[in-house]
Specification:
Elements (H helix, E strand, L loop, with lengths): L6 E6 L10 H7 L6 E6 L36 H9 L10 E2 L5 E4 L3 H17 L14 E6 L2 H11 L12 H4 L6 E10 L5 E4 L6 E2 L10 E2 L16 E12 L8 H12 L34 H12 L6 H16 L8
Parallel strand pairs: 3-10, 4-5, 5-10
Antiparallel strand pairs: 1-2, 6-7, 6-10, 8-9
Helix pairs in contact: 2-8, 3-6, 7-8
Length: 345
């Protein structure tokens, strides 16, 4: 199916939510929406552009000011800035990644296409050395939902299971619960301190500690987070990604190639991201849905930079400081971009 150039077409029909997903998420959304049935159609035939007459030359260039493009600052590393701008850190300024094996569930498409996207997420996870749970009975910690009514779905989750939005400040709630992009993601993270306590980062002044992070009420109130001070290399704590919720607007992604959408979701699921509405100067599949990108800046597959970033994230020392982790990630991207034969010079 991959590489066939097929596109997603949108049709609406009533469909019950599939069983077997995360129980809490299913309860939160049961009976909420009529899911989109998206079918994979043949590649759309692009109409040839209509020839247009060339504009006559301007009679005068008097008064025109030509501004040279701004040169990049040679002292600023583009890869480090990309990581800094696009990957948010935890409250303790570290980069979160999955340490529990990833279990993916996709709903809202016909079964074969749900399976296609789930398979691609697993492929990318394996490629970047992220842990993967292949058991058929695994509990999903990456949930992908295609819906023709994403805002209604999001409103219901906000009422019933706002834990899935992860930590945020109260002033951010309205923005966080507004669906404005073709595909959006929300992440739940937790902190592991130097004593091994694993504490969820929640929108609650009294956090909780639990052996089942996505199943409140919490078992006990969390103790104070314990770290080690006195080192610039880290505080002996780590930030973990424990759940990714991805919602796609079935109407806005209609017509996109299924391969490109699958790769977009795979990269989106494996790390926390921010600022994806802006086109990036680095080649990334995440430009696919960004504003202001030219056609040639919208890859239709995960790029070497995407895979290198994720490889760097999953190879970084989990207890190092965020600056050290960022250096590891940026170094991996630079190596992937270096001409063949020069990576080890």
């Amino acid at each position: 199916m991959r590489g066939c150039g097929a596109t997603i077409q949108s049709q609406t029909m009533t469909r019950r939510m599939q069983k077997g997903g995360m129980a809490d998420l299913a309860r939160a959304m049961a009976g909420l929406w009529s899911a989109a049935l998206l079918v994979l159609g043949a590649s759309a035939t692009l109409a040839a552009p209509t020839p247009t007459a060339k504009d006559p030359p301007a009679p005068s260039v008097s008064g025109v000011t030509v501004t040279a493009p701004q040169k990049p600052d040679p002292l600023v590393d583009r890869t480090s800035e990309f990581v800094r701008q696009r990957l948010p850190t935890s409250r303790f300024e570290q980069y979160a990644r999955f340490r529990d094996p990833i279990c993916i569930k996709v709903i809202g498409l016909p079964d074969q296409f749900d399976a296609f996207i789930a398979k691609r997420v697993v492929e990318v996870a394996r490629r970047v050395n992220a842990p993967v749970d292949l058991k058929a009975s695994c509990t999903p910690n990456v949930n992908v939902i295609f819906s023709p009514r994403p805002q209604a779905l999001l409103d219901d989750i906000a009422r019933r299971r706002d834990i899935l939005f992860g930590f945020h400040f109260q002033a951010e709630t309205k923005t966080l619960t507004t669906f404005s992009r073709p595909i959006q993601a929300w992440y739940v993270t937790r902190i592991e301190d130097t004593l091994g306590n694993k504490i969820l980062e929640l929108n609650d002044p009294a956090p909780c500690i639990t052996s089942s992070p996505l199943a409140p009420p919490c078992d006990v109130k969390a103790p104070a987070v314990m770290g080690k001070a006195g080192s610039r290399l880290g505080n002996d704590m780590s930030s973990e990604l424990v759940h990714s919720l991805i919602i796609a607007d079935a109407n806005k992604v209609a017509g996109e190639k299924i391969d490109a959408v699958a790769d977009y979701i795979a990269v989106l699921a494996l790390s926390r991201w921010q600022g994806l509405e802006r086109c990036s100067g680095l080649p990334t599949i995440l430009n696919l849905m960004a504003d202001g990108c030219e056609a040639e800046d919208r890859p239709e597959a995960a790029t070497p930079a995407d895979l290198a970033l994720l490889e760097g994230l999953y190879s970084a020392n989990v207890r190092e400081s965020g600056s050290q982790q960022r250096a590891t990630i940026a170094s991996a991207i630079r190596k992937a971009a270096a001409p063949e034969g020069t990576q080890h010079r």
